[in-house]
Design a protein that fits this description.
The protein is mainly alpha-helical. It is built from seven helices and three strands, in the order H-H-H-E-E-H-H-H-H-E. Helices cover 44% and strands 3% of the residues. It starts with 7 loop residues before the first helix and ends in a 58-residue tail after the last strand.
Length: 246
C-alpha cells in the first residue's frame, strides 16, 4: 500500500459515510411533518440549493482541510511531505468532477425521500413543528449529509490514487494552505499520534549473495585426563619378581 494511503486522517474522515444514512432519515422525518405548502417543484429546488450549493462551492473553491478534527486543525508547518502531497491531490480537477457527481446523486436521493415522505407521516417526531419547521430540519440534515458525503468522496480519490505516482505528486506550498483550504477552530502542532510503519527488509535480487557471519569455532580445551599418546593396551608380559634387598 502506498505511503499516501497510510495517513490516519484519511481513514478517519472516510468513516463519515456512516453518518449519512442517519442524516437522510432525519431529512425524511422533516419532510413528513405536514402536507406541502409550496409547490412540490419549488420545495425541491429550495432544499436542493440549500443543501447542495454551499458544500459544492466549498469543495470547488476552498476544499475541506482534511488534517483537522473538530475545532482543531494541524498547522501547515507541521505537515509531513506525504500530507502535502495529499493536499495537492485534493485540489485536482478530478476531485471537483467527483464532488459534482456526488451532489447529483444526493439530489436524486432527496427526490426519492420526498416521494416517501407521506409513508413516514405517522412516525415522524416533528409533527408539532408544522411544515416550515419540518423544511428547516430537512434542509439542515440534507446540508450535513452533503458534507459527510463530499469529504469522503475527496478522500476516496486519494485512496484510489496509483501508489506508483507518489513521487510524482508535487508538495503543496505550506504558505497557501490556510488560504486555499477551509477549516474552523484553532491551529495546533499535533492532533493524532504519529503512525509508526514498519518497513520490510529488501528482497535479494537474483544472483545476489548474502554473507552471514558464522560463530567462531570453539575447540574444546584438552582436559588433564586427555593424553596425546596412543592408549592402545600393550601385550601382557610376565616379570619375575626380584628381591631388591639382596
Amino acid at each position: 500500500m502506498g505511503a499516501l494511503r497510510q495517513d490516519p486522517y484519511l481513514w478517519l474522515h472516510l468513516t463519515g459515510l456512516a453518518v449519512v444514512p442517519l442524516l437522510l432519515d432525519i431529512c425524511l422525518a422533516g419532510l413528513a411533518t405536514a402536507d406541502p405548502v409550496l409547490p412540490v417543484g419549488l420545495e425541491m429546488a429550495l432544499l436542493s440549493l440549500v443543501g447542495t450549493l454551499p458544500i459544492l462551492w466549498m469543495q470547488w473553491q476552498r476544499p475541506f482541510y482534511i488534517f483537522s478534527l473538530g475545532l482543531v486543525a494541524l498547522e501547515p508547518a507541521a505537515l509531513t511531505p506525504t500530507q502535502r502531497q495529499i493536499l495537492s491531490l485534493m485540489r485536482s480537477q478530478w476531485v471537483r468532477a467527483a464532488t459534482l457527481g456526488g451532489a447529483g446523486l444526493l439530489v436524486l436521493i432527496l427526490w426519492q425521500l420526498y416521494r416517501m415522505a407521506p409513508l413516514a407521516a405517522t412516525t415522524t417526531p416533528f409533527v408539532g413543528m408544522g411544515r416550515p419547521g419540518g423544511l428547516v430540519i430537512a434542509g439542515i440534515a440534507f446540508l450535513a449529509a452533503n458534507l459527510f458525503t463530499q469529504v469522503p468522496i475527496m478522500v476516496l480519490w486519494v485512496l484510489l490514487a496509483n501508489p506508483s505516482r507518489d513521487q510524482a505528486v508535487p508538495f503543496y506550498p505550506t504558505d497557501r494552505v490556510k488560504s486555499d483550504f477551509w477549516s474552523v477552530g484553532f491551529w495546533v502542532k499535533r492532533i493524532l499520534p504519529e503512525l509508526q510503519v514498519s518497513v520490510p527488509e529488501p528482497e535479494l535480487q537474483p544472483g545476489a549473495t548474502t554473507i552471514v557471519p558464522q560463530p567462531e569455532s570453539q575447540v574444546p580445551a584438552a582436559s588433564c585426563n586427555d593424553s596425546p599418546l596412543d592408549e592402545t593396551p600393550l601385550p601382557y608380559e610376565e616379570v619375575e619378581p626380584q628381591d631388591f634387598w639382596d
